[in-house]
Amino acid sequence: MTILNTAIIGGGAIHRCHVNALRQIPNVALRALVDIDSVKGLKLAMGYQCRFYQDYREMLLDDSIDVVHICTPHFEHKSMILAALAAGKHVFCEKPVGMNGSELVDIARAVEQAKGQLGVCYQNRLNPTSLRVRQELAHGGLGKMLSIKAVLTWSRFGTYYTDSPWRGQLATEGGSLLINQAIHTLDLMQWFGGGVTRLKGVVDSGELADVTEGEDSAMATLHFANGARGLFYATNCHTTDSPLLLEIHCEHGSLLLEHNVLWRIKPGERLKLTTDDSPDGSVKSYWGLGHQQAIRRFYHALIHPGNRDYTDIHEAGKSLTLVEAIYRSSQLRQWIEINN
């Protein structure tokens, strides 16, 4: 069987999730690592026994590279995706796929014309609890969905931004809390609710106002395509990273995700359905193990062209659209209609 040769752009913390996943996929080999920091990059490449490049454009000239993983700051995603697709590579990119709707349009157009495929990492969709929620809702035993409540209270101190100055800056991150941390929660909400038709939101900054141009807290009311209502709150001002609290209220009961455990609650019944796997300690706890499944699915699609079971540009664009809509709603202080 043909070996798929892979390169990773970006040697930050998240790249280790990609390395760990690639090592578990048969007939896939990490051949190159790219990082602008030559000292760090060379050390990592030596450890992985692969080539090192300081300039990703030089790596793209290597015809032996089949797949490129992008693990870089947000503002670099669009240019790197376009360049990699133009070079005939497949691309797997960390979220967000771009920083705004305009970039999303340009990337989607490039994907339509490219030979390679583009996958985007929304690993939380593949958490056991997320998959079970979808299963329960599809089964219909709880009846019509009425509302979804999501509360995300995480912690980011000033050094998180000052140590990586691209974070929290509108020109380089595209925002802050919403586009970086809470985008996964918004993605799950719209995924469970079948898409969002309109929303009204507010963003603000309190504890982190001195270190970030973007928001450290946000709230929104969402209307879903299935008729349900969504209530969303997120902040980076907590003193710890609390697990996501998610409640889906239906006609005949509820689904409750609490402390990484999913419960089905009906009158007189509280049944534990599943839990999320505990990370092995090599990655941050709130990343979970979904990276492995997301990357595995993407490579499965490359090997089996008829399979598209991964988050593509269309799916990735939905949560980015919501983020941009909340920013706009907060600025205009009005409801925003969503065109999916």
Automatic annotation (TrEMBL):
Report which superkingdom the organism of origin falls in: Bacteria
* Domain called GFO/IDH/MocA-like oxidoreductase: residue spans: 132-255
Query: Which Gene3D superfamilies does the record associate with it?
Result: Dihydrodipicolinate Reductase, domain 2, NAD(P)-binding Rossmann-like Domain
Residue ranges of the TM segments = none
The residue ranges of the Gfo/Idh/MocA-like oxidoreductase N-terminal domain are 5-120
Instruction: Supply the InterPro entries for this chain.
Output: Gfo/Idh/MocA-like_OxRdtase_N, Gfo/Idh/MocA_Oxidoreductase, GFO_IDH_MocA-like_dom, NAD(P)-bd_dom_sf
Q: Which Pfam families match?
A: GFO_IDH_MocA, GFO_IDH_MocA_C3
Q: What is this protein called?
A: Gfo/Idh/MocA family oxidoreductase
What species does this protein belong to?
Enterobacter quasimori
Upper classification of the source organism reads: Bacteria, Pseudomonadati, Pseudomonadota, Gammaproteobacteria, Enterobacterales
